[in-house]
Amino acid sequence: MAPPSNAPKPGRTLLALFATMVVLAGVAVWQGQTTPKLGLDLAGGTTVTLTAKTSSGKNPPSQQMDQAVKIMTKRVNGLGVSDAEVAKQGSNNIVVNVPGEGQSRVVSLIGTTAKLQFRQVFAVADGKPTSATPAPSTSPTGKAKEKDGKSPSPSASPSGSASPSASASATPRGKALSGALTAPTPTPSGSASPPASPSPTSPLVPPTGQPPGPEQTYAGVTDKAVITQFEALNCYTDNRRAPGSNDPKRKFVAACDQDEENGQVAKYILGPVRVLGENVDGANAMPPNSQQGQASWSVSLDFDGKGGRQFGEVTTDAYGAYQQNPNSPQAQVAIVLDGQVVSAPSIREGAITGGTASIDGPPDSFDQRYATDLANVLKYGALPLEFTQSSIDEVSSTLGSDQLTGGLIAGAIGLGLVVLYCMFYYRGLGLVAVSSLIVASAITYLAVVILGEGMGFRLSLPHIIGLIVSIGITADSFIVYFERLRDELRAGRRLRPSVETAWKRARRTILVADAVTFLAALVLYFLAVGGVAGFAFAMGLTTLIDIVVVFFFTKPLVALLSRTTFYGRGHPMSGLDPRKLHRAPQKPSAATAGTSQEA
Fold first, then answer.
1. What is the Cα–Cα distance from 533 to 525, expressed in whole angstroms?
2. For residues 462 and 344, what is the distance between their CA atoms, to the nearest angstrom?
3. Parallel, antiparallel or unpaired: strands 280-286 and 298-303
4. For site-directed labelling of 198, which of 273, 325, 414, 431 has its Cα 20 to 30 A away?
5. Residue 217 neighbours by CB under 8 Å, 6+ apart
6. Euclidean distance between the first and final Cα of the chain, in Å?
7. What backbone phi and psi angles, to 5 degrees, belong to 482?
């Protein structure tokens, strides 16, 4: 007689599980990572101490320090770094522990202040000092004169040619800001900027051969100290952050370009802050879009209501300056991040009033990593304080390797004891438990490898402790099922029906026990930090794997073994021996007739 259509098919279930494991192994190989990534305590890493700076020199408020810790933690998580720790130490220090080698990029991004500002450009030139003397004073009549009454003459650049003045045509390259902004073309470094035809109403460029008077070259700039700073500013140094360039309260600031292109770095005089980074609602890295002519990655910005209105106003002013004089530096809007100009595109196609913007740049520099990092620091907001790196230390992995060896030895001892107990008490049935532990270990290993490459998960000592503890949790599920099965056999029932009956009774207990363990791990993970959270994560992960193994391997394997003579007839070494279970063996005729009889 054919079996009913709804009869269990354990063979198919096992095949599906093994096929899934093959797929997981293929994913791990495809990712290029076949071993787990190790955490700070096992593989070493970087420890950096950040010290808060205040204008008064006093310790910062505790609330601002706590806010900085939260923002740094979000940045770490956004970068996909697992098992990193951000903790406040003392009244003005924050200690960041980042596992793994080569984490200088992560460390630098974590402590970045990320103060974003949008300012209109008023002057731009090559980043070399444009004058060896202080800026000329202005006479009551408004004309520039030297102390002897003569007009100043242009100074020579190091190359021997005339130094570039802060003219509108000396604009550097700029990363485009949405579709309505295009990047100006740089002039060669060290060469004189060709004069542009000035607008009748906007004398932004001095006449040919005339000295750059402040009222001409620096039209609209009323702060003479900023002009002096701008002319003496040298952006061809390691520190391109000009003094005061990150102060939102200053009306005019001098700032350097963040990046260098074709050997040139630009410097700017920027006007008042028109939009602050706190008015940015969201930031996301966007891939290239060939249909829209965008060849590089970009960062999409969404403003809130106030920011969108302010951004529309500054782009309206810039577009008005462009209509009066296409070469005017005031046609540019600078995007300033931590006192450095990320980009300074020109508004050439009208004001942007949609409340969104996009930052992009040359594909060779504005790649996926740069766009993702920039979006990450902007997304979670600026730090309330400015931090400096007090110390940065590389943690050796020598101690970690010893700890890893000790953890693996402890795990092997625990696993060996469980195997010995199962084989001694359950005999042949213990092979099912051992096989289940092997399958659970394989799935756990694959999960850790895939999570390490896909989500930055790193195996630390607390994780290993959680995995060792889970050995007992997994074995407990097998024991519950095996004991239910033995109870059915003690009641005089046949083995094959007992497999299904015992499973229906055992799976409820298994699910309840695993649910309690998983909830405990979940609560511990969200309430704890550092190593305790890592322990909770490992325990929760292995609890889910335990359910998969029991349902899709242990029970189907027992169902298949029950059809064999060794287990079906109750061999003394099978673990299902009738004499060991205190009942008489079944007669073959009773098994054929489908009834149970006592011997």
1. 4
2. 48
3. antiparallel
4. 273
5. 123, 165, 166, 167, 204, 205, 206
6. 28
7. -60, -40
Rounded Cα gap, residues 164 and 451, in angstroms: 54
Contact assessment for residue 165 and residue 182, using Cβ atoms and an 8 Å cutoff: no
Question: At residue 503, what is the residue type?
Answer: W
335 SS3 class:
strand
Q: Give, in degrees to the nearest 5, the angle at Cα 131 between 126 and 137.
A: 125
Q: State which amino acid sits at residue 222.
A: T
Cβ pair 232, 257 in contact under 8 A: no
Q: Which of 440, 389, 398 is nearest to 553 (CA)?
A: 440
* In the predicted structure, residue 314 carries a pLDDT above the cut 80: yes
Question: What letter would DSSP give residue 36?
Answer: P
Which one-letter amino acid corresponds to residue 260? E
DSSP state of 330: G
Q: Please give the pLDDT value at position 119.
A: 92
Q: Which residues pair with 119 in a beta bridge?
A: 273, 334
Q: Tell me the C-alpha to C-alpha distance, in Å, between residue 372 and each of 79, 361, 367, 384, 417.
A: 8, 13, 9, 22, 48
pTM over 0.85: no
DSSP designation for 156? B
Write the burial class of residue 324 (CB in 10 Å: 0-12 exposed, 13-18 middle, 19+ buried). Answer: middle
**For the chain, what is the radius of gyration of the CA atoms?**
36
HSE-up of residue 202 (Cα within 13 Å, Cβ side): 21
Output the pLDDT for position 396.
Answer: 66
pLDDT, tens digit (0-9, with 9 covering 90-100), for 454-512: 777 778 778 888 888 887 788 888 888 988 888 888 877 888 888 888 899 898 999 99
State whether the Cα torsion 561-563-566-571 is positive or negative: positive
CA 46 from centre of chain: 17
The CA distance from 110 to 96, in Å, is 8
Measured distance CA(200)–CA(203) in Å, rounded? 7
Q: Compute the distance between CA of residue 244 and CA of residue 265 in angstroms, rounded to an integer.
A: 19
Q: Which residues pair with 89 in a beta bridge?
A: 93
Largest alpha-carbon pair distance within the chain?
A: 129
Q: How far is 357 from 311, CA to CA, in rounded Å? A: 9
Distance, CA of 361 to CA of 562 (rounded, Å)? 67
Residue type for position 256: C
SS3 of the chain: helix, strand, coil, percent, to 5: 45, 20, 40
Give the 3-state secondary structure of residue 47. strand
Q: Would you say how long the chain is, in residues? A: 599
Q: Which helix (H) or strand (E) holds 122?
A: strand 116-126
Dihedral angle computed from the Cα positions of residues 321, 323, 327 and 330, in that order, rounded to the nearest 10 degrees: 10
The tokens describing 202, both together, are: 């906007």
CA distances from 249 to 258, 280, 395 (A): 21, 19, 41
Q: How far is CA 398 from CA 36, 47, 111, 457, 462, in A?
A: 18, 16, 28, 21, 18
